[in-house]
Amino acid sequence: MGSAVITARAAATFEPVGRSVATARAFVRDTLQGWGYNDVVDDAVVLTSELVTNAVIHAGTAADVLCLRTEEGVRVEVSDHYPEREVPLQSSALDFGSPDRENGRGLLLCAALASRWGVEYSPTRKHVWFQLDLPDRPVGIRSAGPVLPTSLLPVTDQRIRVAVVQIDSAGAISAWNDDAAYVFGHTAEQVTGKQFTDFVAWPHTPGTNTGIADALQLSRWEGSYGIRGADGRTIAVYASHLRVRDTDGDPSTVCLLVRDDERAVLQTPVRAPVSDASSDSRTTDPFEVFIGSPAPDDLDGLLQRTVERARDMLDADAAFLLLATDDETELEVRATTGLPSARQRFARVPVEAGTGRYGSARMPAVHEDLTAVPGAVPLLTDTGMRSVVTVPLKVEGRLTGSLGVAAEGAGRYSNEEALRLQFAADRIALAVESARLGELERLRRGSLSFLVEASDLLAGTLDRDQTLALMAQMTVPTLATWCAVYTIADQSSEPYLSYVLHEDEDLIDGLKALLSKIAPPDPVPTPGARVWAAPAEAGHRAALSTSTRSLAHDAPLSMSTATRTTLATAQAVGGETVVLPLVARNRVIGMLTLGKPSDDHFRQEILELAEDLSRRAALALDNARLYSERMAISQSLQRSLLPPGLPDVPNVEIEVIYRAAGEGNEVGGDFYDVFPIRDGAYGFAIGDVCGTGPEAAAVTGLARHALRLLAREGFGGPAVLERLNAAILDEGARSRFLTLLYGELWPQEDGSALLKVVCAGHPLPLRLRQDGSVESAAEPQPLLGVLDDLDLYEQEVVLNPGDVLLCVTDGVTERREGTRMLGDDGLADVLSTCTGLTAGAVAARILRAVERFAAEPASDDMAILAMRVPEPPLV
After folding, report:
1. Which residues of 815-842 are buried (b: 16+ CB within 10 A; e: fewer)?
2. Which of 345, 448, 732, 861 is most buried by its number of CB atoms within 10 A?
3. Do 717 and 752 touch, CB atoms closer than 8 A?
4. To the nearest whole percent, how much of the chain has pLDDT over 90?
């Protein structure tokens, strides 16, 4: 990092799993926000996301992330541990690739966004770093007022008191000065050690997406909220927070608080008008006059500052700002003050006039008394506000939002206030739209990375249950607090609750039980998200019923586990719930349900992202279904080609081991069969069809069933094989040549067994005698499926007690390791060690020898048929 001084560092390692990318993004965001580097957070998160994705998804290794803070900016380093990466030559130019590729965009983004960046290779690591410099900030005096006569200074009726409160890293009060005790009525002994949030009334969300606890973690913060005094009243204060650390490095937050009407003591002054040295004229930026300087550089902060200044400008009790969707058909609540923002944030209302619609969005409007026109401003329903003035925010004639202020009294506003508010709205509209577009661009960057990651994960599996789990895990908590996936087996089936996930694992069982008790959403194929009120209503009823029973039975203050679970579940589903159809191949195969906790809403961009995800997830889920169905059909058909079982042959042990090559195959080109022909006579066969896969399996089925049929018709071995040869040739272009060992077995009264065998192009059967000698038990003859006329003959073999007949396919004898092959001689050597073993033990030893001969998995089917005449028991 050159001569830059490192003032802080943070490091973490992320495992090579899909969720690590989101965890890494959160780590970098939290680290940089904690350092007060909000200016570069978004770019740092985008770059980290791409680089960590390359490591944990594409390289498949753990990723080390290191954040380094300097006075000039921040440096982030990402390393992976891929051991087989080719180290590029220094003279070779780096290939950034195409932005449209699904991977490899990390270096391209570094070049586009970072101030400086680099990549370092070693035989075991790839190390990518980027530097983001902080933008230049003006320093020095912001403004200085003139010297005024004493008679012109503002009048105060008492001594100005500045409450100084220090909050430790755990959020507890560690210092409370005398002015704080005077203003709020609590002594230092009463509050020290208690959580600061216990005394705070947080009416809105100023400049952040969270509340006071998170505001205390910021390096610097300024704004207004309330403190609950000892008498129970809420005292409005203006606060200035500064995050500091002691000599041991422990952080704490110092809060300076004054009464809200004395905010000028702490409030950042408005910057003086810029003077032009080349002229005597002075210009004033109306935007800075209204918003103040420096203006917040993030959208949420700008919107919150706007509603606060609008409220103050018209001496209102509340203010709100809504932003329009791209098509201008809906408005989304983005900032409020004096209203329950947690309930309203991201709520949406239609623009056009009508019941429950925002009819005054496109033109300034003044409502002297909302009780006379209920529903005129849906946002203010049941808030106690009576008079309101609203004005549009427009950019080049296009509606981009609406700004409004409201008061609890009637008749507070007239056209004059509307003009003042409209003038202010016109000054800020362009800045708001610019910030909104910047936010949308950052969201789209994140959405692109999210969808690429989701597509990679969904494409990596064809297992239905794993696909369902991935769908839920990708939405929680990135898009929603909880998620439920319903699946539909076919057009006549009802939706089935297949998977439920909540960001709090303790709530999953309660959520699943609640959803199981209510009717599933209708499987409507209409694209887009639609609101589903049933979970919130069911949760409300369950909570009400539980609370009523507890009161009726005079339950103690400590609630039972079941009651707590019911109330927590009701809270979890109490917000907005939306349903997105899972449509694949013009059929609804399920529904993706997303939910928020009590009184929370989805923002439109999140719903659009969820819709994109649902389309990809639906196709992945349907592909998994089709794969499962085809695998089930394939396995069922393959199992029908195998013999139902081995018959019990008197005085003869028979064992078969069968291995089909290829993933998911149960039957290939090799086959076997042992079956009764008539009383005292049994047929056996082992064959190998040319090739593997479904085509070979089809000939396998033909051969096995034809052998049984012909043998039971009384044909001898040569006649059976000649007719089978004709049947194979009749298949024409679909025919395949076949090697086959066929024989008939007759157990004898003296304990031996008589065999008559025909070996048509097949590896010769081997006979193991009691003395350990091994010999061929037949002579080779022409294979089937090639020649029209065959002159086949059968040979007799007698197995004496203790003898073994081993029959295999060429997948055994042609087992290879490089240039080495097991061969007939190698098989004979293994068989010679099997003296005294049962037929099952002989087959197992042959299989182990074949598997150990080569390290690679077998590429050909294998069948092993062992027959042994046991020795008579000793008397």
Report:
1. beeeeeebeeebbbebbeebbebebeeb
2. 861
3. no
4. 20
307: its two tokens: 């509603």
- CB atoms inside a 10 Å sphere around CB 395: 16
Q: In angstroms, rounded to a whole number, what is the distance separating the alpha carbons of residues 80 and 411?
A: 66
CA dist 388 → 364, 371, 453 (Å):
11, 11, 46
Write out the H or E segment, with its range, that includes residue 866: strand 862-868
In whole angstroms, give the CA distance from residue 501 to residue 276. Answer: 61
Both tokens of residue 283?
A: 């210009």
Residue type, 413: Y
pTM above 0.90, yes or no: no
pLDDT above 50 (res 112): yes
The pLDDT value given to residue 689:
84
Tens of pLDDT, residues 796-805: 999 999 999 9
- How far apart, in whole angstroms, are the C-alpha atoms of residue 570 and residue 544? 9
Closest among 700, 687, 825 to 766, alpha carbons compared: 825
- β partners of residue 285: none
Report the relative pairing of strands 318-324 and 73-80 from DSSP bridges.
Answer: unpaired
Q: Which residues contact 448 (CB under 8 A, 6 or more apart)?
A: none
For 477, what's the count of Cα atoms within 13 Å in the CB-facing half-sphere?
Answer: 10
Distance of alpha carbon 785 from alpha carbon 728, whole angstroms = 6
Kindly state the DSSP code that residue 499 receives in the 8-state scheme: E
Compute the residue count for the chain. 875
Amino acid at 645: G
Rounded to whole angstroms, the Cα distance separating 122 from 143 reads 54
Asked whether residue 204 carries a pLDDT value surpassing 70, the answer given is no
Q: Residue 534 burial (CB < 10 Å; 0-12/13-18/19+)?
A: middle
Q: Angle CA(167)–CA(169)–CA(175) in degrees, nearest 5?
A: 25
Write the burial class of residue 247 (CB in 10 Å: 0-12 exposed, 13-18 middle, 19+ buried): exposed
**Are the C-beta atoms of residues 467 and 620 closer than 8 Å to each other?**
yes
Selection from 142, 129, 371 nearest residue 274 by Cα:
142
For 802-851, the DSSP string reads T-EEEEE-HHHHT-EETTEE-HHHHHHHHHTT-TT--HHHHHHHHHHHHH
DSSP SS3 for 51? helix
Contacts of 638 (CB under 8 A, 6+ apart): 660, 665, 666, 667, 697
Give the whole-angstrom CA distance, residue 191 versus residue 801.
97
The full DSSP string for 216-258 is TTSSEEEEEEEEE-TTSPEEEEEEEEEEEE-TT--EEEEEEEE
Alpha carbon 687 to its chain's center = 49
- How far is Cα 727 from Cα 706, in angstroms, rounded to an integer? 9
Q: At what angle do helices 19-34 and 41-53 cross, to 10 degrees?
A: 150
Read off the tokens for 753.
Answer: 């067994």
CA 73, CA 295: separation in Å to the nearest integer? Answer: 21
For 647, the token pair is: 């018959």
pLDDT in tens, 376-385: 787 787 788 8
Flag the least confident range among 205-209, 437-441, 847-851.
Answer: 205-209
* HEC sequence for 581-640: EEEECCEEEEEEEEECCCCCCCCHHHHHHHHHHHHHHHHHHHHHHHHHHHHHHHHHHHHH
CA distances from 128 to 78, 113, 121, 165, 541 (A): 5, 14, 9, 43, 54
